[in-house]
Amino acid sequence: MSATTPKSNQFSLKSFFQSNKELIPSFLGWIFFLLLIDTVCFSSSLFHFYPSDGKLIIFLARVVFFLAICFGVFLGMRFKRKHIILLCLCSMILSFCSFLSNDGLFNDIFSYLALFSLGVIGGLFGLDFFLSFSNHVKFVSLCLGFVFSVFLYLFASWEYFFETISFLVIMFAFFKQKLPVNEKTELAFVYPERWLLALALLSYAVNGIISLSLSRFLSSKGDWNIFLLCVGSISGVILAYLFLKSRYVDFTFALYTSFAFSSLAGLGLFLIPHYPFLLYLTSFFSSLSHALGLLSLYYVVGVYTKKYKDFHFYYSGVIISAVTYASFIAVDIFYPPFEENHLLIWGSVILLLSLLVFILTPLLFNKKEWISDLKRSDVTYKAPIDSFFDDYHLSKREKEVAIYLLSGLTLKQISFEMSLSYPTINTYLTSLYRKLNINSRVELVLLCRGYLAEKTRE
């Protein structure tokens, strides 16, 4: 019999909204900010900027937005929320001006300023996500964000509508939020996982910009491709959930798998000129890799950042992601990768890059203690085995009995060590087996072997 998911790890939106009312504004703001990022990358226009304005204008508008996110993180860590509220009020006024203006130059200037202010606010919601949200809230917000992104494929011509709705919800959520955006904590004295930054760069490039650019190209090829893009996105969210709940594999396998799907999309792109029917499979794998890859990346980096409070790592990650998005957006705008005569080149690039990361990534994640936190309701600073038992609500005595059992002692030996009667020890044994939903010592060892390996390495 297998262990069931502990009650502490069960989550429902109803219980979340009832017990975490103060989180709701930041929760909604982060979801719509994710949708806005995808819209900025996927859309051919941006607020008042249209393709007819020229490629350079569109590129600069997107760069302003992503660099503003970095500035928002900087402000959020150094200033109180009341000091930033004025900036947000200015954003609303400037945006209103850009809507009313008919003058081209005046319109562009205020649209740039409005985009900058919106990026700053998005950076503040990013702080809430990475440093304040529990693991459960992180994961649910990401799932909802990437499910909503399906509407980008279904209503591509409504991109201006999505931008406006996202803007209004983000502004409303910011004025309503009560979370501190500049939480003061000490840095953990651990060697930072700098390789995560390189992985984030590659994931933002492959599963972010390139995947969205490919999806935009594929969505223009017919309704069936749009349908498969939507199915792929939802499938990516479902796969991420299954990886999170699996007892047999770490959640990091979701990230590995996303690169495998990216390589399949690259292979399909490479073969489309010879086998046109592969266009449909490429659509599915492209959107699946986007949803699964970015969802798992945000979640993994979010858990790591909150656990170690490594703000230098967080700053570096924000800057790297902004630069990566800006760089690949430049390629997408000035050298469109998915025109018919470029399919072979970009198919090869996606295939080779994804395969390389797919092979190397498992080696980097190997034997990392903090990975066990990915499947908990929130990060913990206890020993892995203790945190595991806490997830199942084992009492102090039940934990002691379990540890002795894992050490190979018999019930009589445990009774002697704990100075308790044999029937009492047997009662504790029955209780802990019931809570873990197991029936024998062998099942206990199999259930805890991963945590015991971590304890041995420590």
Helix share of residues? over 70%
| Largest β sheet strand count, sense and barrel closure | none
**Helical stretch tally:** 19
SSE series: HHHHHHHHHHHHHHHHHHH
Structural class: mainly alpha
Descriptive notes:
It is globular and about 85 Å long. Helix content is 74%, strand content 0%. It is built from 19 helices and no strands. By secondary structure, the protein is mostly helical. The protein has helices at residues 13-19, 24-42, 55-78, 81-100, 104-132, 135-148, 150-154, 159-176, 195-219, 223-245, 252-271, 278-308, 311-334, 343-365, 384-391, 396-406, 411-418, 422-436, 441-457. Mean pLDDT is 78; it is low at 1-5, 181-190 and 454-458. The protein folds into three domains: 20-184, Up-down Bundle (Growth Hormone, Chain: A), CATH 1.20.1250; 191-368; 384-457, Arc Repressor Mutant, subunit A.
Q: Strands, helices and their partners?
A:
Elements: H1 13-19, H2 24-42, H3 55-78, H4 81-100, H5 104-132, H6 135-148, H7 150-154, H8 159-176, H9 195-219, H10 223-245, H11 252-271, H12 278-308, H13 311-334, H14 343-365, H15 384-391, H16 396-406, H17 411-418, H18 422-436, H19 441-457
Give me some keywords for this one:
mainly alpha; disordered C terminus; Arc Repressor Mutant, subunit A; Growth Hormone, Chain: A; globular; single chain; 458 residues
